[in-house]
Amino acid sequence: MEVADKWIKQGYTARKVLKIVGISEQIYYYRQKHRHRKKRTSNGGRPIPGFSLNKQDEAISDLQIQEWLGELSSGEEAVYGYRKLTVLLRRQ
Fold it and tell me: pLDDT, tens digit, for every residue of 13-27?
């Protein structure tokens, strides 16, 4: 965006500069219009609790879950995606 702004301010047409840079005109002008808005730091809502509940409603620390995922991903299951890892965690 900064590169495109620099060349457009020097007098080159926006259409040609944006085509060379590879940015669509819609995206460029949208970002120009909204660039002075404050960025949100939080989406709001409740804070993350730091634990999950198992089927018996017992709290399991997120650190414990991370450890289990680390063990699963270091073995032969290293190629599994999040869905398969979720199934494996629930079985344990």
Answer: 999 999 999 999 999
